[in-house]
Recover the amino acids of this structure.
């Protein structure tokens, strides 16, 4: 019956919407609880430092190697495109702006979601599956303060540092290709970059973006881990949701932030 | 527990009208088949779940009405051993036992070291202090978890399936530890289990739970003599009886579409 299948469809959409809204509400409440328990993450700095090591230091290889290759490709593609208009000497500013404003925070964020975000979700999810979180609660230790808040802040602090390193390696990669391989003048490459990139708005906005991405990815990672179904399948699904949700959140937030940050630049 | 009713879904209660008393200093077992609500009772006592109706009093305090701080203060006086130990996998055995002391006391490390070694010695695992949980057998993990559960000298220790998956030697060791620690430390123990044979050796009193209700209770001697069909099925390990072998289903003939000729 078409009417009954229509009713089923409407019911399914309604149930899905209610589920999504209630999950969003739970996530918002969870975020507030994490913030409420955050003082303990800073009171016991060694817990947060450990998480910065796991989320940040252990992500260094993938971030630095990716940054180097992205920079080298930018150097090649950028020089080819710019040279068509006789602007090959502008390679430095082109690469610098691309990396500092966009590619540094965005690509580092995507890599961070895949490497550190998934690890955080899997770790918390497995702790839940093996009743470690319950054991902690029964020992009168709040897992939000002891487990979640340090991982959240570890991610938030590590992310801008990783994005900065990504940009540095990218610029270095572009230098290798542009100056060393293609032969762009060394002084022009660096001089244009220094003259064309301002600390405000370019570098600052890049830092703001990476902090926002760090908050988004870390929150999604700890939330998905904490909310995971305590089964092998549940942890696997939660890890996937972290990578997919984190990546989409970065791309969407990047657009929104870019609109606000750089909207006045074109008219001037 | 007085008239306690609880359900994850209000339409399907897991526990219905539970009345239970656990006297100080005794070892009490809660027995029943898988999924009958035994672990749920422990979670109600520990305040991890809240009953819909009835009262749960621990040391005279109504668990449901306690504030977060009050509940945490109560939990500091309760130890719990989880089914598979729930040891923190990123810590050594030593750090696991030291964890509650470091979280809740200002004792200096030298004193904590002595206390941890005493607790580990009590469960026979002082020599395993520097091992990681992944290096322990199931029985050893359970004993470490027991050392951690008694780290703060609790008044009550709850054991969730402490015998599950253990070899006969480990099973005997864990059983004896529960009894010995209970008597030596003057604590009260609640053991949730379906291991009749081991329980009858160590407990003072037993409750039998089925489908969310207490259907029988008594001392080990009462249980051995009981003629209650459920208790007999449980004690004798009979595959069929009040707890049916078959999960409820349509008649077999209907399912196979068998027709009379």
């Amino acid at each position: 019956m078409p009417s009954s299948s229509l009713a089923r469809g409407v019911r399914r959409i309604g149930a899905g919407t209610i589920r999504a809204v209630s999950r969003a509400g739970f996530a918002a409440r969870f975020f507030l609880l994490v913030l409420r328990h955050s003082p303990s993450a800073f009171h016991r700095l060694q817990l947060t430092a450990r998480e910065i090591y796991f989320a940040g230091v252990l992500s260094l290889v993938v971030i630095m190697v990716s940054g180097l290759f992205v920079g080298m490709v930018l150097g090649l593609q950028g020089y080819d495109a710019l040279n068509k208009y006789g602007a090959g000497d502008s390679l430095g500013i082109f690469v610098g702006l691309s990396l500092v404003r966009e590619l540094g925070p965005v690509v580092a964020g995507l890599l961070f979601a895949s490497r550190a975000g998934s690890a955080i979700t899997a770790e918390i999810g497995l702790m839940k599956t093996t009743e470690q979180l319950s054991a902690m609660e029964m020992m009168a230790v709040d897992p939000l303060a002891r487990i979640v808040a340090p991982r959240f802040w570890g991610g938030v602090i590590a992310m801008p540092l990783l994005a900065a390193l990504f940009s540095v390696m990218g610029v270095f990669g572009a230098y290798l290709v542009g100056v060393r391989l293609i032969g762009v003048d060394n002084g022009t490459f660096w001089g244009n970059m220094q003259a064309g990139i301002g600390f405000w708005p370019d570098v600052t906005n890049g830092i703001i973006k990476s902090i926002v991405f760090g908050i988004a990815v870390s929150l999604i990672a700890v939330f998905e881990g904490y909310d995971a179904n305590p089964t092998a399948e549940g942890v696997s699904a939660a890890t996937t949701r972290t990578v997919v949700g984190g990546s989409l959140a970065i791309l969407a937030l990047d657009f929104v932030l870019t609109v606000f940050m750089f909207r006045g630049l074109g008219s001037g | 527990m007085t008239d306690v009713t609880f359900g994850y879904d209000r339409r399907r209660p897991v526990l219905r009208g539970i009345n239970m008393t656990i006297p100080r200093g005794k070892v009490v077992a809660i027995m029943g088949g898988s999924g009958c609500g035994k672990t749920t009772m422990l979670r109600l006592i520990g305040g991890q779940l809240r009953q819909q109706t009835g009262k749960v009093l621990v040391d005279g305090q109504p668990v449901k009405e306690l504030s977060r701080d009050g509940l945490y203060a109560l939990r500091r006086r309760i130890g719990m051993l989880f089914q598979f130990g729930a040891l923190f996998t990123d810590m050594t055995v030593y750090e696991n036992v030291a964890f509650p002391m470091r979280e809740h006391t200002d004792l200096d490390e030298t004193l904590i070291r002595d206390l941890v070694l005493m607790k580990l010695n009590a469960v026979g695992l002082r020599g395993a202090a520097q091992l990681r949980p992944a290096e322990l057998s199931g029985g050893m993990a359970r004993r470490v978890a027991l050392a951690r559960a008694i780290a703060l000298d609790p008044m009550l220790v709850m054991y969730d399936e402490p015998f599950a998956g253990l070899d006969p030697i480990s099973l005997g060791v864990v059983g004896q530890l529960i009894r010995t620690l209970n008597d030596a430390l003057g604590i009260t123990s609640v053991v949730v289990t379906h291991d009749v044979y081991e329980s009858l050796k160590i407990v003072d009193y037993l409750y039998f739970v089925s489908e969310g209700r207490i259907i029988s209770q008594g001392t080990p001697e009462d249980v051995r003599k009981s003629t209650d069909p459920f208790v007999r099925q449980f004690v004798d390990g009979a595959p069929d009886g009040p707890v049916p072998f078959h999960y409820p289903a349509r008649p077999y003939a209907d399912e196979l579409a068998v027709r009379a000729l």
About this structure: Chain B has one domain: 27-226.
